[in-house]
Amino acid sequence: MKRSWNTLSQMSNGTYAVQDFERAAYRLATEQVLYATDARSRVAYHLVEDHYPDFVSALEPLGIRLERNAHYRYVVALPAHGEGAPVTLDETLALLVLRQRYDEAMRQGLIEDHGEVVVELPELQESWQALTGRAMPDVGALRALARTLKRWGVSRLVESEGDDPQPFHLRVRPAIVEIVGEQWLQRLDQHNRDEAGDADAEDDDAAA
Fold it and tell me: What is the model's pLDDT at position 146?
């Protein structure tokens, strides 16, 4: 680590306490993304942005690397070795489908302010079926998935107005570009191989 939190606190002339640096580092490690546009993460984002090399050095021994996007103003923490928390198949599929929708919106110039992309449920259902060959989870399961994706900083759920036939839509956030990369494709491939292995085992049991 280049400079201790205590040194940085002293250099700020009382603007930041040691605990402010500790909390920002902990939030990066646990929440993964800090957006300048989010009220609850704005202060932590600016603290990290102003002391970026120090946070890079502090998190590197933990196997966490930082990436920042100055245009859309966010900082994302990524596992350096690709291993992450265990995820379900539906979580993996949801991330891959939303990444595909984000890339398509990018190609069509449909990116909104702060780098977000709106995905309506009919559009999500069509893409889910086309990309995965599976039916999209029901509305209740989607709400649960949306809570998980929000914690990962890649999407947020927005409730619809009263005259909208769909209950909600999703807003995909720009950090999905960094978070959903090759490792997620590898996880999907592993899920598919595991399922194929389970199916073969069931066939063997039936034959026996």
Answer: 94
